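Could you join me in thinking about how sequence relates to backbone shape in a protein? Would you write everything just below, so we can both look at the same thing?
***
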Amino acid sequence: MLAPTLLVYLQHLFSLCVRSYLQVSQDDVTLATMRHNELWASLAAVACVFQPVFSVPLENCARDADTCQASDRTYSNEVPRAGSYQPWSLIKLGSIGFPAKQYVTIVNLTPHRFVLDRSRTHSYQFDVFDWDDIPQGRSRQNTAAYTSKAGKNDVDDNGEAFYNIQGTNKGFMIRKTTHIPDDYPRRTVFDLGGMGLGAREYLDPGKESAVTLVITGSDTYGFTASLRHGPGNWMKGLYDVIKDRKVQHLYLPGTHDSGMSTISGDLTSIGTAVNTQTQGVNLYDQMRAGARLFDLRVFFFFFFDHLDLHKFYTLHVNDETAEVAVGNTGLSLDQAIDQVNQFTRENPGEIVFFRVRYLIGIRQLPVGGPVIWDNAITNEFFGKLRQINNRCPNLDQNTQFSQQKASYFMDQNGGKGCVLFLLNGSNLPSNVPHDSPGDGLYKDSMMNVWDNWSNLPDTKKMADDQVAKWKTVSRSGNFQNDQFLISQWLVSADALTTTALSIQDIAIQPTNPALYWMGLNNMSPEIFPTVSLIDYIGVVVNSRFSFDQLSAEMYTFAIGMNLYMISENCAINTRRSPLLPGARKAAQKLAVSEDGSVSDFAEDAVVNPLASDWNGFIYSNGTVVDQAPEERPGQEHTLKAGTVFMNGTVLTHEAANPNV
């Protein structure tokens, strides 16, 4: 046992070091940011918990313990190189001819840099294999061009890119490989086994199209990634993070023409799935895929062979007030109600916005113009909406909903959250009710929004317009033009183009993937839309609509934008980012240290209900195995002579794969 004198000396030395650390720490918090030595941060945390023993000045521990400070900021100003949009001319050529350039977008919504390990990144028979680091808060579109050289066997094309997560012992790998013969011969495997997040095989959906990997969280908070969906109630999982933010300072996924996940075909018109359907999954699965704002267009539908038979439908038409409307019917309102109730029953605590419009009648043979609703139809419609659970009646109408804190809505109905209906009554006559606040049915003027629709027939032009508008909305300083901004990340092609290429393929090949490289790299903690409204949420391969075949890019992106990006904006988020080491744990400790009481660290550790802990494998057809197979698609045990490493090494003979 150490002599008492030596113990006193060591205690004194430790105290001096810790006090010195605290004095030079810019944020005066014991659990410093990624830029500080995490070992000393941890030791300082212990010293503050046992403050009387180590004589650490309490004010150094307590000051700004859980306050967001500019010195904590990890968001990188380094902008990766610009990506490329898929030419629309290639949309229908995915399986014609093998050589192709494929893109892999990696989104980093963490406080750690993703560092490319060039000594482990290699390729065989790729004309281009271009990868690089991913800074914090940024994304990079990486390129893998399969060989076009004569005499090569496409079956042998393989490459691996390996990333280390800076400041941790974790990493992940991306494999580019082939599966021949197949309608989708080019494959991408995201292997996050080194993070405890499993692996997934993706079909490359088309030539010069992208697959996307989104990672958020941190080493201390836990990571989650877009390989699969987590809990449906992701907002409740972030309650402590977002509860004090204004609704317009959240980031929410939204879906365009949300009821058009099917063509029910009751309208006698030329609207078909390729030119009228806008979603691949129903409202229940859209919600599970992360969506929280829905564009619902409701008609009162008259069947021409049964004039006394009528029904409320969602509808997508060119003009709801036209003499001859062109489009078709989607979900019935009854189906929509059942799906919403199923989701909220299983996933309490969310804020769900329905922006409801059209509210007009149409005949099965859509000629002769619209039918204006009377009191009977309007009251029947309101009666339908009263069947929705977790509505929020009698809310404060003196404050715009967008200005309310998220917790105002999330705490309603005993913590079950809110389903908010915002009705656009522009087609309703003045002598019928336009709202019913006592039933939780409000005019859309209760939440003024900037609904930015570019109305452009080209992905790049649309994207340029959207990001330009984002940058006019200030989320800091004087908050000039700060508002609830809906960014319609979708194109408006004419009927001939959508019939030839399909709304689905235009969405999932050139348009949705661009949000994750072009969109994100024009966002920052101070620049972001409130909602990204998209077509075909979750769908990455044409007509693969089962939930297990969906990908969780938008779900994970929403979590990351709220958890990482907006948490670094101290004008919005006054508390210390939960992703920094021990942020909340420090605050909890310091809150009890003054009275001398100390609780166990494990009890106060930040628990991330959205972090994954799974190491299985998801095959491209949606099959899930909970135990990762020894032989993973694209994994080569032996590298061929001619394999090129990104550090400049070229194999002159076969060698064992260092990544296996």
